[in-house]
Structure formats: C-alpha cells, structure tokens
Write a structure and sequence with these properties.
The protein is α/β, with parallel strands linked by helices. The protein starts with a strand and ends with a strand. Helix 1 crosses helix 4. The structure holds fe (ii) ion (2 copies).
C-alpha cells in the first residue's frame, strides 16, 4: 500500500531565529550581528534579570511599544539568565569583535589626524586584524572598512546560531518579536536548521505539494519526541489551487504594509514580501495562497526589518526565481550588503540595482530611483524607490522615501517623465535613530541628536510635491504597518491623532479634490490596468 501524503497546514508559522532572537538582516551580516549581540541582546537580557517587573510594566505601556523590553510578564527569569550566560559563552568571539570595534574607533578618533594610517595597523585589536582596512574620506575623516565578504567566511559568521521555530497561528495579535528572545513554550517546534539549508524549501513546498511523513521527517531529522507535535502541523486536505493572472493588462494586489504583487501574463513581481498566514479572521486579506506558482522577481526597497522579512522570504524561497535588492556601499556597519545577507542564507540569483540602473523584465523594466531619508542621515546605499514599467503603464513604489529635497524629483521627472500610479509610505514621525541603529554606535548619541535623526518618511507637503511633480493619476498611501498581522515586526499603532494618519488624510483629500484617485491602503486592494 502506498504511504499517505500530507500537506503542511497553511497556518504553520515559521519564525527565523538567531541565538533565539527574531532574525533580520543585521543579525546575519557578521559585523552587525556582533554589535547586536554585545550591545543589545546581552544588555536586554541582563536588564531583565536585574528587574523583570520593570520590563513587564513597560510592555504593558502602549507608549513603550517596540522598546527594548522582554515580554514574559516578569517570569522565566532563570531561563533568560541561562540564555544570557550561554550567549556570552558561545558568542565570546562576537563580543570581543564588538568591543574591538569600539576601541578601534576610539583609536581612530585620537590618533588618525590626517597622516598615514599605516602605523596604526599594529594597534588594531587582534580580533579585527586582517578583517578591516583603515581609511580616510577625502576630508580626512577616518573610518573602518569591514571586509564583509571575508567575514562571512570566518568564524564570525556562524549559521549554527540560526534555527526556525514552527507553530500554528490562528490570530493576528502576535507580540512584538524583536525584543523578546524565544523560549520553549510546548506548542512550538524549534528546528536547528541553518537558513541556507534546502530542507526549509522541502518543508514549505508542502504547503502546495504533498509529501510522505517519512520523507519530510527524515529531511528535518526529527527526534521521536518532536514527531508528535510536527504531525499536528500536517493535513491531508489539499489547499485551493494557486491562480496566476492571465489577462492582457497589469494586475496589482496589495497584501499589506509594503507588500505589493504586480502581475501580467508574462511576469510576476513581488515587492517587499510580508504576508499574512491563512486563518479565520475579521479582516479580509491576501495570503500565501494568493501568490502565483512562481515569483519571477522579488524586489526589495530597503533593508529595514519590515521590508526584508525572512519569515516570508524563507517560505517563498523555493518559488522565487530572482531577487533584486538595492546596492550597498558595503564595508560599513550601517550599510551591510543585502545581497550578501540573502546569498548567505540560501537565496540564489540575487542582483543589485543602483540608482538609475534599469533591469529589463518581460514586457517592461524596473529602474532603481534614489530614495532619500528615513535612515537617520546615515550613509546608506541599500535603499531604492522602484519605477516599474509594465505593458506601457508606470508605477512608482517609493516605500518610505522622504522627500527632503524636491529638486531630486524635478531631475527625475525630466528623465523618466510622468508616473501614473504612485505608492507612497507616509510614516512621517518615525522612530528616533537609536531604535534600530543604537547597537551599531560606538558611543551613545546625545538624546537631542537622537530625537532629531529619525526613521521618518514623507509628510503631507512632501508627499504632495511628489504627486505634483510626476503628475500622478493614482496615489496609494501604503507601508504604514497598520495591518494587525504585521504589528509583531513593526510596533506601530496609530490613532486618528497620529501625524501619519492626519497627513495622509490631507494628502488623499487634496488629491481627490483635483481628480486624482487616492486612497490609504489597509488590508487588501486589487487594481487591474487593462
Ligand atoms: Fe524603513
Ligand atoms: Fe517601513
């Protein structure tokens, strides 16, 4: 008799972990990972052990949402202490790396005064020797250039610290994921599989193509006590068949936040993948099941954790043909290469696009346009607004671009002309710099400086200038992180008094009064351009 075959349930959630922490790009690039372990993870855990109730109270305070607080209601202190001890032991070399970066920066500050840097090589801490070059810019500002490619081949890149955590999800309100390390909960199955392992592809193919239990259990190297839980993730009920768009025009679907799928009968392009799982819920949405069989291009606008979501990307990896990411300057802590990150976690055909580069795709093209701001004035290359032309239609997906210099768009208009459909993020408040980049700094930023340098996107005035400049016919405000199934990664909750809501309401009303179609997207949206 033939062995029965099973599907993976559509609501199997897959959390990517690094040392038990929710993984994102800065936990993969070795130099930034070292800074996060040393300057964030260990600090949060030690602070929790010292005052668990302070964390419990902070987590309950909506004003502290997304802050560096562990969400275990003041409990599980022993386990957090053990995790901190284990991290300090297993990641001792990473901690040494981070401390060496700090002392090398101090050395450069005191000794690099415009003269040759060669004598300073003797003073580079041992942990960094051969992995960094000391450089000046043309104004004699010294800095460290990290050899990223080499670091990935060194002991500072440790895929063994990666794992995936599988569980069943049936509701939207996941807790904020970035500040709380995962501890065992009896309902989740942690598999110590590096992200690059093709077993992950075999597993997630099973959401569409059934497989025998013996095959997948062997691939996953499940132990006997993991088997029972794993079986609850399987079903014999087949999912609805996937349907691609086969019409003559362009179909655009909004999946939530910055995730947009553009399809023609020739090509599919998925922007900033971040998907909801399928389960019974109150808000209509597209999910994994609304994607085509294969995705020709995944397109990334920038490397913030809500735009490069490993949780979604890993589950789609087997069906992604190409990934286009903005080109990093590389070599700095603030701008690790997204291409290297993705390649090292198992993605193939990752291509970089630079400002004003064009890549031809069937029936059209993708052009990387400059993306100003929203990165706290750090020198970051890994950000692009994507101009997509398909079937003679033009779409600009500007993500969190902050129009801090309207002249940019005037130059662009002269080069690329009008744009019919604009997608614009308007998170115009934005968190202060330390929220994401704090662990990368060698010395803390003055509070006022921190508050002035923010992750802010365009407000009403700046947004309207873009709309006017490109003579847009349709404007969609998106990337506001309002879908409740994504709060776990974004920590954004607005009220009617929040500036992004006030400003986007104004922009929409202004557009509509001029006959421009305008809407703030939430949940789901489909437009077909014939
Ligand atoms: Fe962003
Ligand atoms: Fe964003």
């Amino acid at each position: 008799m033939q062995e029965p075959k099973f599907y993976l349930k559509q609501n199997v959630q897959c959390e990517p972990l690094f040392n038990q922490w929710y993984a994102w790009t800065h936990l993969i690039a070795p130099h930034t990972a070292a800074m996060f372990i040393s300057n964030l993870h260990l600090k949060i855990m030690k602070s929790y052990v010292a005052g668990p109730q302070i964390h419990a109270n902070a987590v309950k305070n909506p004003a502290m949402l997304g802050g560096p607080f562990i969400d275990y209601q003041g409990g599980r202190v022993d386990e957090i202490r053990k995790l901190a001890d284990r991290t300090a032991k297993e990641s001792a070399h990473m901690i040494e790396f981070a401390e060496s970066v700090k002392s090398l920066n101090q050395l450069l500050n005191t000794e690099a005064k415009g003269y040759s840097l060669e004598p300073l090589y003797a003073k580079i801490p041992q942990a960094l020797k051969g992995y960094v070059e000391l450089v000046y810019d043309v104004n004699n500002n010294p800095s460290i250039r990290f050899l990223e490619g080499l670091l990935y081949k060194s002991r500072y890149y440790n895929p063994e610290a990666q794992s995936i955590l599988l569980s069943l999800i049936d509701r939207d309100d996941r807790a904020f994921a970035l500040s709380t390390p995962r501890l065992p909960d009896g309902k989740s199955l942690q598999l110590r599989i590096p992200f690059a392992d093709e077993t992950i592809d075999e597993l997630f193919k099973m959401k569409q193509v059934p497989q025998t239990l013996s095959y997948i259990e062997e691939r996953l190297r499940l132990t006997a006590d993991q088997e029972e839980l794993f079986k609850t993730f399987l079903t014999e009920v087949p999912p609805a068949p996937l349907q691609s768009y086969s019409g003559a025009g362009v179909r655009v679907r909004y999946f939530g936040h910055a995730c947009i799928l553009l399809e023609t009968n020739e090509v599919s392009i998925l922007m900033d993948p971040a998907l909801s799982y399928s389960y019974e819920n109150g808000i209509e949405r597209y999910t994994y099941q609304d994607l085509p069989e294969t995705i020709d291009y995944v397109l990334i606008t920038h490397s913030h954790q809500d735009h490069v979501m490993f949780e979604t990307l890993l589950q789609l990896r087997h069906k992604i043909k190409n990934i286009i990411v903005p080109r990093a300057h590389g070599g700095s802590l603030e701008d690790p290469s997204t291409k290297r990150v993705l390649e090292n976690i198992g993605f193939r055909n990752v291509f970089e696009i630079d400002e004003m580069d064009t890549i031809d795709v069937p029936g059209g093209s993708i052009t990387g346009l400059p993306f100003f701001g929203e990165h706290c004035d750090l020198n970051i290359g890994t950000k692009a607004a994507h101009l997509i032309k398909l079937k003679n239609r033009t779409f600009l997906l500007a993500a969190d671009s902050n129009n801090i210099e309207p002249e940019l768009y005037r130059h662009l208009f002269e080069l690329v002309g009008g744009i019919e459909v604009l997608f614009l993020g308007m998170e115009c408040d934005g968190a202060p710099m330390s929220w994401l980049y704090g662990p990368l700094l060698s010395k803390p930023l003055d509070r006022k400086m921190d508050q002035s340098r923010r992750f802010s996107g365009s407000n009403y005035e700046k947004g309207m200038q873009i709309v006017d400049c490109f003579n847009c016919e349709e404007v969609y405000v998106y990337a506001l992180g309002q879908e409740p199934w994504l709060t776990y990664a974004l920590s954004l909750k607005y009220t009617d008094e929040s500036n992004p809501i006030i400003d986007s309401n104004k922009l929409i009303a202004d557009c509509q009064s001029r006959g421009v179609i305008a809407e703030r997207l939430f949940g789901l949206k489909e437009c077909v351009y014939a």
